[in-house]
């Protein structure tokens, strides 16, 4: 492939990595990861509510990795509430899993920024055939994609398996019991998904620029060695 086309491909991949880093940093601080609705079971059972009457007992919330807000309703009007994961909800959430989500988001940001630098260096510099070259680009794209995948898996597990929305709704609510009705992944979660997709795409762009996958190159070298041994 001509040198100019390689520069265009690497610059494109570098810009995409930089946009991903900015997107993940922004997503980290926003409360737009999950939108959930929940029903006040206690109030609904007391008045035997059904149909449209349940709307008076339906609350909603949205939250991210650090904070969130919502509205509780139990037939007596709306009660807004705000919460922080640290330190308010430390006893109500799976702390280790939540911290790992934040950690992998941070690693995703750092690897995306480093990937941007490597792509630009390969576009305009003279990289060595080591970590500065195609091997480093493949490695960083793999690390970034893996971190994005782990963020989505861990966060989804925390929300669904550990009933995170329900625990938040029932936090410090001794009188009323709430049951989650619906949960939707919001903007920030899909930003991470797009970043995962972009880093997978960057791996294909590196291959399109004319550089073989590392394992394919090693396999080719091993085949050549075996062939040489057979000749002698």
Write a compact overview of the structure shown.
This protein is an alpha+beta fold and 232 residues long.
Number of strands: 5
Strand content: 15-25%
Give the strand order of the largest sheet, numbering strands 1, 2, ... along the chain. 4-3-2-1-5
Low-confidence blocks of residues: 218-232
First and last CA, distance: 35 Å
SSE-based structural type? alpha+beta
The arrangement of helices and strands along the chain is: HEHEEEHHHEHH
Radius of gyration using CA atoms only: 24 Å
How many individual helices?
7
The average pLDDT value, as a whole number, equals: 85
Describe the protein in words.
Helix 1 (3-29) runs antiparallel to helix 3 (95-124). The chain contains seven helices and five strands; from the N terminus they run H-E-H-E-E-E-H-H-H-E-H-H. Residues 218-232 have low confidence and may be disordered. It has a five-stranded antiparallel beta sheet with strand order 4-3-2-1-5. It is of the alpha+beta class.
